[in-house]
Specification:
By secondary structure, the protein is mainly alpha-helical. It folds into two domains: 170 residues, no CATH class; 87 residues, no CATH class. Helix content is 76%, strand content 4%. It has ten helices and two strands, in the order E-E-H-H-H-H-H-H-H-H-H-H. A two-stranded antiparallel sheet has the order 1-2. A hairpin with a 4-residue loop joins strand 1 and strand 2. Helix 3 runs antiparallel to helix 9. The chain is elongated and about 90 Å long. The chain starts with a strand and ends with a helix. The N terminus is likely disordered.
């Protein structure tokens, strides 16, 4: 801790460090712990409102909106607590103007939110890294079973489903080929080109015994359903990213505002009133 001597009037002002990392880490730890608690509660509430039965539970739209709002509320509560603790536990600044003290308090709240966000991202990334390492280690096995793990397998099964065939178990090669064709087509063009569509119609007609017209209609229906499902997944991912981004912004603001309040309570000046003088007068 440095001492600055003002030679003009002989006074000595003690300058404290600008950043109190202990307070920041304490606030970040509290924010992470409360986030974990609220996240567990949110998972339980999610299972409570979702039901596999028709006309029961919340709709998908209501569930998505409710999840986004819960993310925001969770960020406000956890970040607010972390910011308040960071501002309240920070070392009191002596000899600084009020505006500078308030800036340091809000900065500590913001830093507590930033540390908590980074720690949370690392904790979420660790399981993903572990899964990625396992997948890389078993790349050969994964490549050998690519047809079984393709997300397009369901659509391939739908195309080849038929009540008139008794040898459905012998269609593994065709099913894998169709799944790979659909995967590459949607990955490259978000659709199936005319040549691949014509090939699918021939393969389905040959394997299921459908007429050419019925096979073409069947292929078009399945491709339309696949595009609709992919579009729903894209929109769901987009909305989730937007809700998470909004919750992060609101969490940062809540942490800074709560740290300002915590600093004011620490100094006894919250709300523009010197609370210490008010308490002394009341006595």
């Amino acid at each position: 801790m440095a001492q600055l001597v003002d030679a003009s009037n002989g006074s000595v002002a003690i300058e404290t460090p600008g950043v109190s990392w202990g307070a920041i880490l304490a606030g970040a730890a509290a924010a992470c712990a409360l986030t974990l608690l609220l996240l567990s509660l949110g998972v339980g509430l999610g299972f409570a409102v979702v039901s596999p039965w028709d006309s029961r539970g919340a709709s998908s739209t209501s569930f998505e909106i409710g999840t986004g709002l819960y993310f925001i509320v969770m960020a406000m509560i956890s970040s607010g607590l972390g910011g308040y603790l960071a501002g309240r536990l920070r070392r009191k600044s002596i000899g600084l103007e009020t505006a500078e003290v308030q800036f340091r308090d809000t900065a500590h709240g913001f830093l507590a939110w930033a540390v908590a966000s980074i720690v949370g991202a690392v904790l979420l990334a660790s399981p993903a890294s572990s899964l990625l390492g396992s997948a890389t280690g078993g790349a050969a096995q994964a490549a050998a079973s690519a047809s079984q793990s393709s997300p397009m397998n369901n659509y391939a099964d739908t195309l080849l489903r038929s009540d008139n065939r008794a040898d459905q178990q012998s269609l593994a090669d065709t099913r894998g080929e169709i799944a790979r064709l659909l995967t590459s087509s949607f990955h490259a063009n978000n659709d199936v080109n005319a040549a691949d569509r014509a090939y699918l119609v021939k393969a389905v007609a040959a394997r299921t015994g459908l007429s050419q017209a019925d096979a073409e209609k069947h292929v078009n229906d399945v491709i339309t359903q696949a595009k609709s499902d992919l579009d729903k997944a894209r929109k769901a991912a987009m909305l989730t990213a937007i809700w998470l981004t909004l919750s992060l912004f609101i969490g940062a603001f809540a942490a800074a505002a709560a740290a300002w309040e915590g600093g004011g309570v620490r100094d006894g000046t919250w709300g523009g009133v010197n609370m210490r003088e008010t308490l002394a007068r009341s006595r």
